[in-house]
Amino acid sequence: MNSALIFRNIGRFVLLMSLQLLVFNNIYLGGYINPCIYILFIAMLPTNTGKIPTMIIAFFMGLMVDISVNMLGFHAFAATFAAFLRGQWLDKIILRDNVETVDTPSIRSVPYQAFSLYLLLIMFIFFVVYYSLLYFNVRDVLSVLVASVLSTAVSWLLAILYQTLLIRKVES
Asked: Which domain covers residue 111, as residue numbers?
């Protein structure tokens, strides 16, 4: 991994975690929508990052968010679970049809539809796990699904907006 890619990822980490901790943790719309933009960092980790390092990074990112909202474990577990599934979806969705090598999956480096589906799956599984832990009641299955779908939609739109506005045209 070259130094430019390392610095780009450090900058992305700082920006996304700052946005999450300072802005998005304070947004809770209608009791169902809680955007989590930091999941984008996990989705955009370099493709050559192993499964264990990805899960460790996701765990510590989730733990940082948990500490900031005084709710230990929910974000950490959900982010780690999403990171666990990331590798399989990366291989099946992003790398499957890509002839050229992709260092960092993004809206600019892979086809839009493929990246959108990949990001949508990662965010949706994150929110299903997160809200399942939050509600932790079989009677609230509908609430879990509604909150997961709405939070995924808002987070996905924010992530696409972030990518559209802040990612350079040629990123590898």
From this structure: 3-166
Residue 18 domain-assigned?
Answer: yes
Give the phi and the psi of residue 68 in degrees, each rounded to 5. -70, -30
CA 164 vs. chain centroid, Å, equals 16
Could you tell me which residues come within 8 angstroms of residue 170 by beta carbon, excluding any fewer than 6 positions away? 108
Nearest to 122 by CA among 148, 96, 141: 148
Asked if residue 171 belongs to a domain, the reply is no
How confident is the model over 43-96, as pLDDT tens digits? 999 888 889 999 999 999 999 999 998 888 899 999 999 999 998 888 888 776
Please report how many Cα atoms fall inside a 13 Å half-sphere around the Cα of residue 14, on the Cβ side. Answer: 5
Whether 106 contacts 44, CB under 8 Å: yes
Distance CA 21, CA 27 (A): 10
97 part of a folded domain? yes
> Is 114 part of a structural domain of the chain?
yes
**Cβ count within 10 A of residue 47:** 18
Coil vs helix vs strand at 142: helix
CA distance 142 to 90: 29
Domain total in the chain: 1
> DSSP labels for 27-69?
--BTTTB---TTHHHHHTS-TTS-HHHHHHHHHHHHHHHHHHH
The CATH number assigned to the domain holding 31 equals: 1.10.1760
